[in-house]
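Friendly challenge for the regulars: who can give me the structure tokens for this chain first? No prize, just bragging rights.
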Amino acid sequence: RKDLLYLGTETGFYLSFDGGKRWRLFQLNLPLTPITDLKVHRHDLVASTAGRSFWILDDLSAFRQWTDATEATDVRLFSPREAYRTQAFASGFGGGTRARAGANPPNGAIIDFWLGKVPEGDVVVEILDNGRVIRTYGTKRPEATAPPSLEPPTSPLTVKAGLNRLVWNVRHDQVVPVPGLFVFNSLQGRQALPGQYQVRLVAGGKTLTAPLTVRLDPRVSTPLTELSAQDALTARVESELNEIHRAVIRLRHVRSQIEDLLARTKSTEGGDAIEKSGKAVIAKLDALEEALVQKRAVDGQTVINFPMRLNELYLYLRSAIDASDLGTTNGQLDRLADLSEQWQRHRATLRSTLDDELGAFNQLVRARNVPAVIVR
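First reply, four minutes later:
Bragging rights claimed.
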């Protein structure tokens, strides 16, 4: 774009979108210091200063698409530049970060959008893969009194009037969390494959889309077919892990209702039979939860005191697969087969408990005209 100009002066940094007819101060967090040189390197703007080191403005995509009409629009989504799928690690290995060290650019796809004002409704940004939503960001926060969700949570999004920037870390939605449950491994979603994606912005009654290309780290030589097989394996692990966490949420919901019902029928006619049946169901649910998740661990230190449960074994396997760009191994496939066999046994026990034992309990409750327990 030839009419986009940058100007560094003794007293500030300026931008022009009309070939120099009008200049705008664009200082941001750059110190007020003489700018001695400017250079556009690919998609970034590099500025050297007199005495304050050099500074980099990451990603000029939005400025290259900016027009005078942009500020008069209610909503605009800028086409993002290509992103790279990389294995990124936090800086400061060994503990802490250096106070004088610069910040690396964000790892992932930079998505810029304009809001003339903050809309009254929810603002949602979605990442689509062949029309299927794989990641959702939104401004709406779940209500504190809402029941635990059985779906992956929406990633938080904060917006303001003006230019907004979101960084998608090239990952799918996270694993369904169990409220209050500490896990030692990460619940973040698996890496997205290199390929063509779409960004969808829903705000102020408008829906806008833009294409997004994700490229493979150029240092990785693994064929896409092997990465696809790795992705499919990780997806299987995540799917079964989500089943486990949903099962725990459901059984907790059932147990809570039974405990409430036992409290309501205590000391009533026929209450002893209801209590005996209800406690038997609760005992089975407790045993199942104990096999699926470790409730006693509360932080990164107490995990060493208690054995890992099935969900942590799945999480460990998933992290081992996802942290590599080398494809799958026979050991990973065998380990998933072992874990799947364990999960199938527990799932059958849960189904039997909810269908048979809970069914008999509800029948006993109905015979005494007490509202039954509902499975979500």
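DSSP finds five helices and 15 strands in the chain. Residues 89-96 have pLDDT under 50 and may be disordered. Your move, everyone else.
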